[in-house]
Write a structure and sequence with these properties.
The complex is a heterodimer of chains A (about 210) and B (about 260).
Chain A: H1 5-14, H2 28-39, H3 43-62, H4 68-85, H5 93-112, H6 123-126, H7 130-136, H8 143-149, H9 155-166, H10 171-178, H11 182-202
Chain B: H1 5-17, H2 22-26, H3 30-48, H4 56-86, H5 89-112, H6 121-134, H7 138-163, H8 168-186, H9 190-217, H10 220-244, H11 256-259
Helix pairs in contact in B: 1-3, 5-6, 7-8, 7-9, 8-9, 8-10, 9-10
The chains are: A mainly alpha (about 210), B mainly alpha (about 260).
């Protein structure tokens, strides 16, 4: 995504370098109202919706693509698509948003001709040595390691981990977003956590408190 | 009923979210504790990971891009509503009918002033035919023929002024319309017939004057044709005279000009 340097500088001068002012939390009722108003072109509602969606979509895509820049570009494309198609949106809003995001990630990899979404080639290098962890008291699990570890999961399992533990949705919300029964989501959640634990165990890490 | 391990995991995750410790939760399900402990600890670690935040610069810059979309979004919302209204079948049908009426009326208005050779002239002639077909009353029909005859006379004059040649088709049509008007007069009551014949006579004389005027400046090749038409007008005048004054003794019916 390209922006003119002039426009970028103007905005940078006016916007504080803190994304929290562009972050808006909405509960389900508020979200419904905002979406309804945004559909008829209410400018404030569209702005609030953008602030609410951008970080969420970014976090969702971050765990599905390798590079941060790709995550930012894709997030922009997803948000634009959402805002352009908003008047025709029906049924569950969150389900619609994450379907768009998911499909755009799939398209992105299809265009690049890459089968697996995140490469695990250099996973060994990224995980700190156990001795180093003990000596320097560093946290061995970080977002980029988790992202790579999620490669061992199926797409549905990875989606549950992403929505449930990273986005923080309840099982009911995840089931609505994924279009699955709650029981199926619980099973996916268990199998996904078990696979991740097994993966880290094989790498020699005992998960302790 | 024995609980499934995924159900237990979900219950324990909910309790941990509410603030209880992993050890505390596992005490409730000792049969699952060995298997669930590392999973629960891992889930706590994942939940505690710092949330990846988008770069504020990129987000701010993109916000500007979105502002443009938002500005466009306001206009389409009206267009969107209009499209929805037009999507309704009765509205579409009525709109289509109104459109056809408007286009038809505009075309007819323009064609009424068209002259031979113009793109809309065939429309004018077709509209006259339709008008004639739809007119049932004999008297109105006769007056209609006289109107058409006058139009042909004007067109004949217009064509002659441009090309300096007589247009045989228009001449024939002009004379033909008058003849049809005379035929219509036969079936009318006496009073209405006299009124109509009087009008036909005036139109006929008008045509004769036009033809005489044309004849003066016409080329030699057209003179015979014009003269023939003038003679026809004269004969027709005699016939009308006879019809109007049967006892004048100028000429006896049937009128030869009507036989041609």
């Amino acid at each position: 995504m390209t922006f003119s340097l002039k426009a970028f500088n103007i905005i940078r001068n006016f916007m504080p370098a803190n994304s929290s002012i562009l972050n808006e939390e909405l509960n389900n009722d508020e979200l419904l109202k905002v979406v309804k108003a945004a559909k008829v072109g209410d400018k404030d509602a569209l702005t609030r919706l953008f602030k609410y969606l951008y970080p969420k979509v970014y976090r969702y895509i971050f765990y599905r693509v390798e590079r941060k820049e790709d995550a930012e570009d894709l997030t922009g494309a997803v948000i634009l698509k959402i805002l352009k198609n908003l008047p025709g949106q029906k049924k569950n809003f969150k389900h619609w948003v994450y379907r768009i995001a998911s499909n755009m990630v799939i398209d992105f990899y299809r265009r690049q001709g890459v089968r697996k979404e995140v490469k695990i080639d250099d996973l060994e290098e990224d995980i700190p040595d156990e001795r180093e962890v003990k000596q320097e008291n560093v946290e061995w699990l970080n977002p980029s390691i988790l992202k790579k570890a999620m490669c061992c999961l199926t797409r549905e399992q990875a989606e549950v981990i992403n929505l449930r533990f990273i986005q923080g949705y309840s099982n009911e919300e995840v089931s609505r977003i994924m279009g699955k029964r709650v029981g199926a989501v619980k099973a996916l959640q268990f199998r996904a956590l078990q696979a991740l634990r097994e993966y880290f165990r094989k790498k020699g890490y005992e998960i302790k408190d | 009923m024995r609980l499934k391990i995924e159900e237990v995991l979900d219950k324990l995750l909910t309790k941990i979210e509410q603030g209880r410790s992993v050890e505390d939760c596992l005490r409730e399900y000792p049969e699952f504790s060995q298997e669930l402990e590392p999973i629960l600890r891992l889930s706590v670690k994942i939940k505690g990971l710092p949330k990846p935040e988008p770069s504020p610069e990129v987000m701010s810059a993109f916000f500007w891009e979105v502002e443009k979309v938002i500005a466009e979004q306001r206009a389409p919302s009206f267009r969107f509503r209009l499209q929805r209204v037009l999507a309704l079948a009765p509205v579409r049908v009525v709109s289509l009918i109104l459109l056809v009426i408007f286009v038809g009326w505009t075309t007819l208005s323009f064609s009424a002033r068209s002259m031979p050779g113009h793109i809309l002239y065939p429309v004018k002639r077709f509209a006259e035919k339709v008008q004639h077909t739809l007119t049932v009353d004999q008297k109105s029909n006769a007056f209609l023929h006289l109107t058409f005859a006058d139009r042909r006379a004007n067109e004949l004059l217009w064509a002659f002024e441009r090309q300096k040649r007589i247009h045989p088709g228009l001449l024939s049509a002009m004379l033909g319309e008058v003849e049809l008007a005379i035929h219509c007069s036969d079936s009318l009551p006496k009073e209405e017939c006299s009124e109509l014949l009087g009008k036909i006579q005036r139109v006929n004389q008008g045509h004769k004057s036009i033809l005489e005027r044309i004849k003066v400046s016409a080329c030699g090749c057209d003179t015979t044709l014009i003269q023939k038409a003038i003679n026809q007008c004269l004969e027709r005048n005699c016939c009308i005279e006879e019809k109007l004054n049967p006892k004048s003794g100028i000429k006896q019916s049937p009128c030869p000009c009507l036989k041609e």
